[in-house]
Amino acid sequence: MPAAEVSVSAGLVRRARGWALALSLVFLSHSADNPLMHGIGERAFRAVPA
Question: pLDDT tens digits for the chain (50 residues)?
Answer without folding.
Answer: 667 888 899 999 999 999 999 999 999 999 999 999 999 999 999 999 86
